[in-house]
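This entry is retained here.
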Amino acid sequence: MNCSLCDGACADADLAPLLTSELAWLWQALAAAADRRGDESLTGGPAITVTVPVDPAQRAAAAGLIYGRPLQPGRSRRVSLEELATAVAIRGPLLTPGAVAAHACNRRLATKARSRAEQEAAADRVRIRLGSSAADLPGHVRELVGPATVFDRLRSLGWITRLLNTPAPADLLDQALHVVARLPPPGERIDRRLLVPGNPHALDAGALPALVLALTGSSGTPVRSGWARLGVDCDDLLGGLIVTGITPKGWRIPSGATFTLPPRELASIAWEPPPAVGTWVFITENPSVLAAASNRALAQETVVTPRVICTAGTPSQLECEAVGALSHAGWRVAVRADFDQAGLAHVRALLAAAPAAVPWRMGAADYLASAPEGADTVHLKESDAPWDTGLVPVMLEHSVPVYEEDLLPQLLGDITVGAPGASMA
């Protein structure tokens, strides 16, 4: 069986004369050089530089290994690896300077370099597998995957490292490619539960669906939107919008009730018109805002019916379009989210789907009014808040997010009077 320190280079070798305490300094220097170079054998290449010890016994022990002029105490000396390899080979036919150093230090040498090399070799196998498999995909899928660029895209997203850290990288990649091969052509659709025959829940969550979306350039967006781009229909009964005070056309909902409209209902939503021209509906990201407004109304602290819709996080394209439909029904729409990178993206998406809507307390003054302080940081671009050019600079200056709960009194005040703050309306 191979030695765990040197892969069997020590076989049939007499190491005892080389592993004395007097020679430890030499092998420690060799081990450090092996780690730096990523070469665990050290049988050739540039000479290494060592510092000759002062102790006479240590110098004498090395005299038979380091050829040439006498060793001068405290001086630097260049050691030829070829000559050293010849010297140690006398003690064993397969023995190398690196193998002796590994046994002297009782550890494997150049492990980081070897690990990097193994990772690169494994990544190269992934690249080859991707290239050969992508060539066999249907034409409309090849356009999505982009065989020439898919490996670089996956690497930039961190997926190559993630893939190689899974128990069976090849199996996961093959599973993802089989799913990708079943994606429908443009104009057709398929239920996500049918993409993995015999396992309708294989793509509900986890590494497999995430890799499929990454392979097809559909990651970095809400999951449901990513699948929709691929012509894949997800379960349309979970998720959706949480609503109070507004109802779909023809529905009868008890006054003050809060309910959820799942994606199935949002797909063809038509809203009841407002009770009066100019009536506002408030769109929020966090359920806590809707809950507080509803609780206040139930406690009869307000005579105005709270009209609030909550996206409960990142809104899907379908949810954004449902918000846009409110304007078509005659409602005035105010939208907001957290003051962070994701929240600003939510507001941009909502405003894109509902151009008549207005940002609701989403300006620089509103951000500063919350007295932002903390240890978090924000990462933004100037274009992240086009509705207020002063917002991103002040957020970057304070470099901390502000959440809707931090503005809850002001938000509840607006909902109570039925209109957003004057500066934002």
Summary: The chain has a mean pLDDT of 89. Residues 241-417 form a domain with the Dna Topoisomerase Vi A Subunit; Chain: A, domain 2 fold (CATH 3.40.1360.10). Residues 336 and 347 are 6 Å apart (CA to CA). The chain has 18 helices and ten strands.
